[in-house]
Amino acid sequence: MVFTKILIANRGEIAARVIRTCKQMNISTVAVYSEADQEAPYVKEADESYLIGKPRVNESYLNIDKILKVAKESGSEAIHPGYGLLSESAEFAEKVTQAGLVFIGPRPEVIAKMGDKIAARHEMSQADVPIVPGTDEAVASAEAALSIAQSFGYPVMLKAAAGGGGIGMQAVYSDEELGKAFEGNSKRAETFFGDGKMFIEKLIENPRHIEMQVLADHHGNAVHLFERECSIQRRHQKVVEEAPSPVLSEETRRQMGESALKAVERLGYSNAGTIEFLVDEQENYYFLEMNTRLQVEHPVTEEITGVDLVEQQLRVASDEVLSLKQEDLSIQGHAIEVRIYAEDPNTFYPSPGQLTKLELPEGENIRHELAVNGSSKVTPFYDPMIAKLVVHGETREQAIDLMAQALHKYEIEGIKSNLTMLKRIITHDQFKKGNTKTTFIQDYYLPTLTNQ
Asked: What positions does the domain Biotin carboxylation occupy (predicted)?
């Protein structure tokens, strides 16, 4: 029996997305919102909505006690964490369970393990999943870092053990750079995360960022739903995502799928998750990290498989046996998603403010995920993503053409947005050729700004 009522511990477009599937499944929804989100569309779309605090996240969306209090008061049976915010907090998952509720996601100890980069690497190597050559323990000092870097050979990547969002990460190309970079990033990580531990790995140059979507139940069944290519990024955040990858051979796809399922088995993983890989020019792939939640870009997988991932999450969390079998899953056509940000397309700085117009392209095979409507005020308190536009075509070329047409009809006024940037990426020859490396923005987009 699937739940009758769930609370969504999130906001914006992902809250609206979860509500949509719940409505189709006749599950009542409870939304929580901050003072800044009182007029947000998802608040009205939910069956019940509760104010949980002031705009800043630590006073609202990260306030575990307030969220649990609302869950109890509203009679919710389970909590869907969405992505970001508390979705990868092992403490939150633990407290949800202790409160007698179901956390719609994996077990707290799995979240904790995958959230610790060093523990995650260890688990993956035990599961026989390829990992980038790197340190298994935190590096104690700049001197120790130097001898490790010399043994791997430059370039290397310095990473904060507790890092995220690109903080405490730096590519280093020489001994001279390393000393300064080690001290500086360790200090930053200490400031941001309360943990200055660093580790070092070999830098894979010009990689692609390709991830595998997995889904597992509590009864030992698991499937992967193929890959998503998410290489086009700015400031370590994805901007364009597609499925399948334009370059992956069938053999590498099969191997990556097998590796993803080995990881699931090793971890005793349940619910939806994503295993991110770096893939080099020879199609060698290396484990990057595991996201123990639904991803922002999950719609492209839904479009090519016909599977509603939120529905599957809810069914698995309510202890149903996975109805999907690997041999029943196949890739149908090609899907592309772009993230629409309230930001300056030249500087990437957030551009909060009052929307005065939002006109959306409509048509077959065009899908919208929206955090706003035409009269919304975009607040400065949260991630500046206001919408996602998703298209599906029989072929990649068709999907690109449809996306280009849709973007040209998409209108946002009142605030700056990255629509011009997205149009340039989608219509760029190198994008059409599938040359979507992680350096795409600096190689092909940023030069167009200086030429104006």
From this structure: 2-446
